[in-house]
Inverse folding.
């Protein structure tokens, strides 16, 4: 197809480099294990074909480091711990209450530091708290985090004060702090659930192919993961006679986590779900599931032995961390390959058009 | 076109500047980039860099992507000229996809007398006939000109200044704002570099300017010694549609410099009209591969402020084929998160009540 005399002076094509843009890429193969149901009545829909601009990404991955993944985990631990702390407060489990409160404040502080560190201009972090924007999960989340930290902070100061024999230099503040301790526990618990769930919306409310495709079910994965992680922490820190509820919550968390993850993957576009199974994130999520199940079984079988309980708790904490890092990394990966953006979009566009909706395409003939 | 009902705040047709409660809404401004007359001179890239004092992006390396060594839009690159080389086979595919688009019931390219009989498909040049026979466009001879063996697509990409801008919606600090011209601008003294907008943009436009640390999606380059220090580090940066120039009733730098008027600047409504006329004209010449991108206010982002006339599918140029503003699904996500939260509370309550025994 030489068309110009100047072509002779062009450098040779680098070997092995396919001119992706020149040809249509191979038709999409169905992913093994991917959903194929629904394709029967979709015969009108042409197979999605994949072309891209030199394989360059269409959307950008957010400039988030592993600090954000760590925050997803820590926020979950804090959220779950807030609920365990209130439960312990109401049922008179003193050690569980103390440890859950201390765990909550540790997790939320570390998480906050991780979030601020990840900003491009950390010294301006407070700009998040100069406005409240309902359309921004990051904004709503910052306020949830702040509100939660308030209650968690008050309860934790009380616990530390008791732990050191009322030797904190609190002066006249001490009676005040003791008086608001109970309500503060309630306040923290009120924001505990939202703290565990909002991070799912933070990820999904983006143009990121994998995170966005998970938007219906990711909150269920995240609250389950938060529940099992906080329960795991309690099982590590607290004697077994007080961790009965934590073990029960752990088992429910594991069941919810495994089921929600499966359900979520089944409902996602099969291509957008691929990064959850491939490469490093796929590996992380596989181990997350194994550890979660091991921890859940451990909580039931070994939960009454101190060592068995602690080991199960560690497994649960590990499972939650791996889930968060896995989901986080899968999203980052999905933004890097244009295929994950283009193929699901082409498919949904073709499906709408096959169903007779022809007026909402961004590409028009007029 | 003004629609203040909350129902269209998240998606659908609306007037974005009025939604932002500007007391003195100005006519919505935008670009119409007609790629069919782009010559790939990159004057827009240069003019943009100069006017906006944008630093160098990367290490000035050759990419082997045709004449495109800019690669993509980014924090310091607000206009990006794409170059695509296509052979005969690919050109045919582009023609065919354009014809399919025409056949999706877009009556404007048909003459009124043809409107009566044809059903969907009938009006399309469905057989792909390339010789002779006048087709559904009426008496106009729509025989495509000889299919060339090779063509070069050149297109200057830019921020779309979406009607429903994902970047703006998800920004937690209010740094991203809607101007009185309906455009979307970052206030760099408010932005704290959280990076949420980067994930929120369905077109991969906005980017956080490198803060010197090794962060993904920030390209600064290693060999920076020979040029001045990078300003506005660590904050999100993107095209402002030359907000400063608009305030002075000036044309944005890229449109002003474009030697072929491929980049047109003006009132958004006028640009949509112009774009429709231009695509009809190209269709009448048999260039069925011509199509508009962003001119439909019913699309996933409520239409874009910057429109494009493309000669192939959007993804060929690196544009998403069916972008959707993430906030359109936010009510659904919030609902699901609320249910999940309720489930978590119930589980915790159950754990303690069950443990009483
Ligand atoms: S194209 Fe991206 S950066 Fe530009 S307004 Fe739309 S969402 Fe924002
Ligand atoms: S990086 Fe800046 S402009 Fe972007 S969302 Fe964060 S605060 Fe807003």
């Amino acid at each position: 197809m030489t068309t110009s005399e100047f072509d002779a002076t062009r450098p040779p094509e680098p070997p092995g480099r396919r001119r992706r843009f020149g040809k249509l890429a191979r038709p999409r193969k169905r992913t093994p294990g991917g959903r194929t149901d629904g394709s029967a009545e979709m015969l009108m829909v042409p197979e999605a074909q994949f072309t891209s601009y030199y394989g360059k990404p269409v959307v950008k991955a957010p400039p988030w480091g592993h600090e954000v993944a760590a925050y997803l985990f820590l926020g979950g631990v804090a959220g779950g711990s807030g609920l365990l702390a209130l439960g312990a407060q109401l049922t008179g489990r003193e050690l569980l209450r103390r440890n859950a409160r201390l765990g909550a404040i540790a997790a939320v502080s570390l998480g906050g530091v991780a979030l601020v560190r990840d900003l491009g201009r950390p010294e301006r972090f407070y700009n998040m708290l100069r406005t409240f924007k309902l359309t921004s999960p990051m904004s709503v989340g910052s306020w949830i985090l702040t509100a939660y930290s308030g209650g968690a902070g008050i309860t934790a100061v009380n616990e530390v004060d008791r732990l050191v024999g009322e030797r904190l230099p609190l002066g006249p503040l001490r009676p005040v702090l003791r008086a608001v301790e109970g309500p503060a526990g309630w306040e923290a618990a009120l924001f505990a659930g939202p703290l565990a769930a909002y991070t799912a919306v933070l990820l999904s409310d983006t143009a990121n192919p994998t995170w966005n495709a998970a938007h219906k079910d990711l909150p269920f994965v995240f609250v389950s993961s938060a529940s099992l992680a906080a329960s795991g922490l309690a099982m590590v820190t607290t004697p077994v006679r007080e961790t009965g509820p934590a073990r029960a919550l752990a088992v429910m968390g594991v069941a919810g986590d495994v089921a929600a993850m499966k359900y979520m993957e089944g409902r996602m576009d099969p291509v957008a779900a691929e990064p959850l199974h491939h490469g490093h994130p796929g590996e992380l999520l596989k181990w997350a599931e194994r550890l979660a199940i091991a921890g859940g079984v451990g909580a039931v079988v070994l939960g009454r032995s101190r060592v068995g309980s602690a080991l199960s708790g560690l497994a649960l904490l590990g499972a939650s961390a791996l889930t968060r890092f896995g989901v986080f990394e899968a999203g980052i990966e999905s933004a890097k390959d244009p295929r994950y953006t283009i193929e699901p979009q082409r498919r949904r566009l073709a499906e709408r058009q096959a169903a007779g909706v022809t007026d909402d395409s961004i590409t028009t003939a007029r | 076109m003004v629609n203040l009902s909350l129902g269209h705040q998240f998606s659908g047709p609306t007037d974005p500047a009025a939604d932002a409660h500007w007391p003195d809404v100005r006519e919505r401004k935008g670009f119409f980039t007609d790629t069919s007359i782009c010559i790939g001179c990159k004057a827009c890239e240069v003019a943009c860099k100069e006017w906006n004092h944008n630093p160098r992006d990367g290490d000035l390396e050759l990419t082997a992507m045709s004449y495109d060594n800019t690669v993509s839009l980014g924090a310091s690159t607000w206009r990006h000229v794409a170059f695509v080389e296509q052979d005969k086979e690919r050109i045919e595919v582009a023609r065919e996809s354009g014809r399919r688009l025409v056949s999706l019931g877009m009556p404007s390219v048909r003459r009124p007398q043809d409107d009566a009989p044809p059903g969907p498909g009938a009006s399309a040049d469905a057989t792909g006939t390339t010789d002779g026979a006048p087709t559904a466009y009426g008496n106009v001879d729509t025989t495509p000109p000889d299919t060339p063996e090779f063509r070069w697509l050149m297109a200057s990409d830019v921020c779309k200044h979406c009607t429903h801008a994902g970047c703006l919606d998800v920004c937690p600090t209010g740094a991203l704002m809607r101007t009185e011209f309906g455009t979307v601008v970052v206030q760099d003294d408010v932005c704290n570099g959280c990076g949420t907008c980067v994930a929120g943009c369905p077109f991969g436009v906005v980017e956080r300017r490198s803060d010197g640390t090794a962060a993904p999606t920030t390209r600064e380059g290693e060999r920076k010694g020979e040029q001045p220090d990078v300003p506005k580090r660590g904050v999100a940066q993107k095209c402002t549609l030359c907000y400063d120039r608009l305030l002075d009733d000036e044309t944005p730098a890229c449109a002003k410099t474009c030697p072929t008027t491929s980049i047109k600047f003006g009132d958004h409504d006028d640009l949509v009209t112009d774009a429709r006329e231009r695509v009809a004209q190209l269709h009448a010449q048999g260039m069925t591969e011509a199509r508009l991108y962003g001119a439909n206010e019913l699309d996933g982002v409520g239409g874009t402020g910057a429109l494009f006339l493309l000669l192939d599918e959007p993804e060929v140029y690196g544009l998403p084929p069916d972008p959707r503003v993430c906030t359109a699904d936010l009510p659904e996500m919030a609902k699901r998160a609320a249910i999940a939260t309720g489930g978590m509370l119930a589980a915790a309550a159950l754990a303690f009540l069950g443990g009483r025994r």
